[in-house]
Amino acid sequence: MMFLGREVGRSQDFSEATAQAIDSEVGALVRAAYEEARDILQTHRDRVDALVNLLLEQETVDGPDAEDLIRLGRIRSPEEREPDEPVESTETVSPADLAAASAVPAVPEVPAATDDPPVPPPAEPPAPPPA
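and the corresponding structure tokens:
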């Protein structure tokens, strides 16, 4: 696997070991995200299939209908969409599943590869003279 940030013909500002470490970490992040996405889709396969079938029937589905189908397993009626009325799901989805479905995994910061010394933070401005 090759580090995605490298370009052919570009000089390398970091060691081969650093490039391999970056390649390994990027690969691990991609594999973990793939596994998580696959698990979420497998867990909620029935809802994904329902959305697919609706799309095959209607060709387009608006945002609220798609959200209802994914979150509730069905499309709410206009009366149920009234803001004052709570909506009961026909199937429960745990908060962890909802969080996992909408979570964006944190990406660790990778320090920039440079031989330049770090830039110190700006100095505090001098205090005003006493009045």
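(Above: one complete record from the training split.) The radius of gyration is 25 Å.
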